[in-house]
Amino acid sequence: MGKSNDNSRRKFIKNAATGALFATVTPGILSAEPIAAPTILPADAKGANDRIRVAVLGINGRGKSHISEIMGLSKKANVEVAALCDPDMVILQERAKEFQKKYGKEVAIEQDFRKTYDDKSIDAVALATPNHWHALQTIWACQAGKDVYVEKPATHNIYEGKKMIEAAYKYNRIVQHGVQLRSSKAIQEAIKHLEDGLIGRVYMARGLVYRWRPDIGDQGISKVPEGLDYDLWTGPAPMRPFSRNLVHYNWHWHWNYGNGDVGNQGIHETDLCMWGLGVNELPERITSMGGKFLWDDCKEVPEIQTSVYHYPKQKKIIQFEVRNWCTNLEDGAGVGNIFYGDKGYLVVKGYGTYATYLGKDREPGPSRSEDGELTLHFENWFDAIRARDMSIQNGPVQTGHLSSSLAHLGNISYRLGRQLEFDPVAERFVGEGESEANSMLSRNYRAPYILPEIV
User: Fold this and answer.
1) Which residues pair with 368 in a beta bridge?
2) pLDDT tens-digit map of 428-438
3) Which part of the chain is the Gfo/Idh/MocA-like oxidoreductase bacterial type C-terminal domain (predicted)?
4) Quick one: 327 and 262 in the same domain?
5) Bridge partners, 291 (sequence order)
């Protein structure tokens, strides 16, 4: 990690400690009391010879990568996957067999993750569950004394991000957000170029999510499959009749559980947009539009979405594009970012690759491509756990709040069909008639899956 990036991360934590990221927002209530923010946590650190035992929650999709990455670091970082949790017992049993075959040992399985949280032998949890579970599972884990790796997006709504930050600091837990680009050596180098002025004054970032998302049809209502605890899967969301259009992946495209592609793949890019622009707060003006132009299926989220986030005081702007079918690339980037300065531009292509183009003639500048960012991101999490030091994290809990909230702001503007004005300090919509927008900062939680107050 370069000195410039290290200083930027510590400045980010310091800004959080001043209260800029800690104003507690409850619908209808605003408390701007800063939260105490130590960066060095109490001395319950694991020694080098103490194995860190991790439970992986959600093992149908991304969780499989969590298992392989953690077990791949088993010797180097002295860690292990000690338990697998999923509300689908059929998948649990399949993964346990795969684990036994690949690693030559058994792994504990548990359908109800809350029982795993009660297990004192589990040190940390890695969350690859649906979006609507991320914040609550993170907060409960912090309360149970577990450190957390939470997949993107860290939250399902803006209010949850405040509660996650409060929980991480109150219970002294290392919460790492799964934006692994922050651990990429190539992308760290790219950000340093931006900070050092390679492309001049950086005034605009463009985020791209061009993914192939086909028609999912409408399978309607059906019987809950054997082995699935659908009540637990639904958790804090409203209870709806079971549909195979929800479980196990297409929940991404329904508002009760997912946040569309800007809140799915897009979180890597919203995070990088803010990082590269050097903004550590949310925008003041947001507008988003789009819709469903391709398929007559049961998706609720837009297939095509264009969002603009304006920072008038900083004279900076973020453009964000979601497309999910046939489209062009932009200088080779289909999933990635483009940063514009007054002396050139920088393109991030996917993971771990960047290129620069300088001046009117677009002369090629520095570039780099390097893999392995996910492994490095997990390794960084384990390093922070052992040191009990938030300041060395590449993806601290604050990044989870900000990058996820940027996506949520765009979605709120899209769903309401109008431009919104936002106070980035109070984190509230402002102006007449914004009670509807402010009501979308949080959600109604279904008992007993209630987001706790952190006092």
Assistant:
1) 354
2) 999 888 999 99
3) 221-279, 379-449
4) yes
5) 304
Average pLDDT over residues 351-356: 96
On whether both 430 and 302 belong to a single domain, the answer is yes
Cβ neighbours for 368, distance < 8 A, ≥ 6 positions apart: 185, 186, 189, 190, 353, 354
DSSP letters of 103-128? HSS--EEESSHHHHHT-TT--EEEE-
Specify whether 209 is located in the same domain as 161: no
Give how far Cα 117 sits from Cα of 44, 99, 267, 374, Å. Answer: 18, 21, 27, 25
Structure tokens at 69: 């990455």
Q: How far apart are CA 63 and CA 48, in angstroms?
A: 26
Domain co-membership, 346 together with 260: yes
**Residue 12: which pLDDT band, with cuts at 50, 70 and 90?**
very low
* CATH code for the domain of 327: 3.30.360.10
Domains in the chain, number: 2
Asked whether residue 245 is assigned to any structural domain, the reply reads no
**pLDDT on residue 10:** 47
In angstroms, the CA 21 to CA 424 distance is 9
Is 97 in the same domain as 63?
yes
pLDDT of res. 455: 75
Cα separations in angstroms, 387 against 37, 145, 392: 16, 16, 9
